[in-house]
Amino acid sequence: MAELTAYEAGWRKVCEDLDDHPGIEVLQRHEGEFDTGLADAAAAWETLVHPQKVTAPAGLGQCQLRFHGLGRQWQTAAGGARVAGEFLVGHIGQAGLPAIEEIEPWGDDDEEFPASQLRVIDVHPYTGTGQIVGLRLLPGGGEPEIWWTDRQYGDWKLDIGYREYLNTLQTTKGAFMWQLLFTQAPLGEEEFASVRRRLEDMLEVLPALFPEHDYEPLRNRLAARLQGRCDM
Description:
By secondary structure, the protein is α+β, with helices and mostly antiparallel strands. It is 27% helix and 20% strand. It has a four-stranded antiparallel β-sheet with strand order 6-7-8-9, with no helix packed on it. A three-stranded antiparallel β-sheet has the order 1-2-3, covered by helices on one side. Strands 4-5 form a two-stranded antiparallel sheet.
């Protein structure tokens, strides 16, 4: 087996930290094969977007993953606030199309677009939430946007890029709904009350379980979002 890069090893550690933690119950493990065929990030990107010409995400070379799927479905052990999550990430050259037809943004500034513009980079195959995260390959060739879609809470554009998404996913371990911290979703409104509770529980429980991570930026972002600000 080829040697892992430091970044890939970091993702292995995310999984091991969940597997080995006495306060976490891992329900499902996904350990896809390791692909050395597209080791070059630029080549992987060209494979994904061909025959289109689309700008690659900033820093793609620093966050290249060669796994054919790496993920965990987990929940906190009994006692205290309940937090659960799931993620499945992998080789960007093999990011597929979502099984939906249209993206209907809730944000005022965005228009509907065909879901065929998305390439799925994170999904919940075991929990079956229906939530997906995709890179939007912009028709004009600009840097891809990150979109989160959900049957109940709609479709939202995130204000972070691909590398930032993966880095934050490592910190949150895929706790459900964390992505809405990076959208214009009105988290202070009643219809998002259950989302708000999930985020508050996440930011109470995860810092105690994983004190090596800094959760203060996420706390600050939640506070700002509850005040209706998106400037964090």
